[in-house]
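Q: Structure tokens for this one, please.
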Amino acid sequence: GLTCWISAFFVAVLCQLAITFNELYDFRVSVSTYDRARRFVGSMGSALALSLVSVVLAHVWELQPILDFPGLSLTSTVQMLVFILLVGFAILYSWRSLFHLLLQRADLNDRVLILGSGKAAHVLAKEMRLHGASGNDIAGLIPEAELPPNARAFDPDETGTRDLVWDRYAVDEEGITERKDDAADPARISLLELCRAKRIDGLVVALADRRRKLPTNALLDCRLAGIAVEDYEGIFERVAGKIAVEALRPSYLIFNEGFTRNRISEMVKRAFDFVLALIGILLTFIPMILTAIAVRRDSPGPVLFTQQRVGADGRLFTLFKFRSMRADAEKHTGPVWAQEDDPRITKVGKFIRKTRLDELPQLFNVLTGDMSLVGPRPERQHFVDELAEQIPYFRQRHIVKPGVTGWAQINYPYGNTIEDALQKLQYDLFYIKYQSVLFDLSILFNTVKTVLLRKGT
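A: Here is the predicted structure, written as tokens:
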């Protein structure tokens, strides 16, 4: 009957949650035979425990009309669930293993040739290697014609792509030049012929100076022959999930899709933030009270830590957190980033930082409209001024409200350097460009997973 269908659907949802929280939908995890087996065991155990607890609670709270398998006693229901879940996860594991085996045999990845061998080209090659699920295999990098062999604008060893650089070829505004060992003069060859000889499926233009070195006619021939041609920024976003700040130009922000501000979308996001923040406060009220008591008893000073932060459009607001450091933490140092194993952090502070309990009072910042649930992390004015001088487009992150969590937080660990700030900015700009309610929900779900798995804390 209907009750049986509802119960089966509920158990299926619990299994999906267990699989998701064990990161088995992350291709980089699932493709590993060892990790796949280990995490399937964890997923099966989690799903089984959640299902059994739910069934028992349904009987204790007399919720059989909602969660029950008609005609079965509690004992037989438990036995059936255990058997079905064991069989179901065994079948699922077998299918997943077969799926990865077929993918390896089919060789469905596109062979990509990168035009350029400067910093942008090597960073892109590194990201492609890190994100194996992007469906791209790097065939090689072709240096700019003006660079002699083995002379690079960027050290390839930093990204492990030295073996991919084709020193035999060079690219300029006319096309491709091939250096031959048995000839005094290099020979001009067709880019299209090179692509066909190397079985290239796509070209990526990552030249340092496109205006003087872009082989327009050669690229046009390849494009009309069915070979995909993409610019560096587009494929970098798709592969890495962030925007390459080094390659950004004013024209990119002006003419590119995204980075729009829509009044209706902002109203929907505000309603979304208000409702979820209110629910969050109600659900975490007791943990907040217990945290406040622990902070008060651990060290002298106020329970709440308040600080001026930069919000949307550069406006200042007061941010609330549970205090995790000594009350006089910056008395002698002034504004400084927190360090790993920072001696200023209290005993309770270490715990509430790892569990993210110190962030809960920011739900009240969301209620007042100073913050959003999802967005770039708010920084202090001192650090904003400092970073804006060294990182291009840093102030562009303030076109949206700062968030309790964000795309950068779930993709990049805590950092306290200029390089860390640059990496996080790339994720923040990607979020601003593509922000939506569904994107926010995905980030919130992954934030919960990140906190439960203790990643990046």
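A few notes: The first strand starts at residue 110 and ends at 115. Confidence is low (pLDDT under 50) at residues 149-154.
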